[in-house]
Amino acid sequence: MSKDGSRITLRQLEIFLAAVENRSFAAAADTLSLSAPAVSMQMSKLGEELGAVLFEKDGRSIQPTEIANALVPYARQMTTTLTDAVEMVKSMQGELDNRVRVAMVSTARNFGPQLFQAFQKHHPRIDLQITIANRRGVIEALETGQIDLALMGRPPRRIEVTAHQFARHPYVLISHPDHPLARFRHLRRTDLAAHSFLVREPGSGTRMVHEHYFQSVGLSLPRSQEMDSNANIKQAVMANMGLAFISAH
């Protein structure tokens, strides 16, 4: 078996990076639409080609070795260089549509621009066209082909999409300091149901989280007042008009 790296493929490096990021061959397989055995086999081949152990088992997860961690920046550089080269050739041949249409839910406006800025730093030839809408609006844009990419929470089930989870999206309960429940460190579910809430409009992901929570614990939806933006909800909470579930971002 050669140890000069001549048989290493870029696909193996992509799989390697996914395995390092997910700390799991199964999770890496899901990300790349492969089977877990296929990922494991490719990582074994990569390790043999390098003459090194890349991963060690740690219970149900895997941990990259010191050599694997040192390999990560080189693997990223090689995969990025190939992507840039392909885009450059297609662009020169007029085969590449440099426009990418993106829609993001309103809660993503607090971190989405930083992601897009980082993307454009590596792909300066790509023209991003970004719109903001509630969850329903983003899904409709996906269904009708108005956008190429969506930045949102749970992917829609009624249409076939390729989804990649890149971060958690926690929600928190907020209230005015003078609200009757603000003085309690621990709350019962029934305590929440007895108070009025400020909610987003139907079709919003934040509204969906609110309704799903109370339905999942077997409680009726509490009294609510509808508002059309998270900013308005925050202002209403500051005026002590009610409680609200809202994105932690």
Q: What does the secondary structure layout of this molecule look like, with pairings?
A:
Elements: H1 10-22, H2 25-32, H3 36-50, E1 55-58, E2 61-64, H4 66-92, E3 99-105, H5 112-122, E4 127-133, H6 135-143, E5 149-151, E6 171-174, H7 189-193, E7 197-200, H8 205-216, E8 224-227, H9 230-238, E9 244-247
Parallel strand pairs: 3-4, 3-5, 7-8
Antiparallel strand pairs: 1-2, 6-9
Helix pairs in contact: 1-2, 1-3, 1-4, 2-3
Can you put this structure into words, describing what you see?
- The chain has 249 residues and is an alpha/beta fold.
- It has 3 domains: 83 residues, Winged helix-like DNA-binding domain superfamily/Winged helix DNA-binding domain (Arc Repressor Mutant, subunit A); 53 residues, Periplasmic binding protein-like II (D-Maltodextrin-Binding Protein, domain 2, 3-Layer(aba) Sandwich); 77 residues, D-Maltodextrin-Binding Protein, domain 2, CATH 3.40.190.10.
- Helix content is 44%, strand content 16%.
- The protein is built from 9 helices and 9 strands.
- The chain has a 3-stranded parallel sheet with strand order 4-3-5.
- Strand 3, helix 5 and strand 4 form a beta-alpha-beta unit.
- Helix 1 crosses helix 2.
- The longest helix is centred in the N-terminal third of the chain and has 27 residues.
- It is globular and about 70 Å long.
- The model has no long low-confidence stretch (mean pLDDT 87).
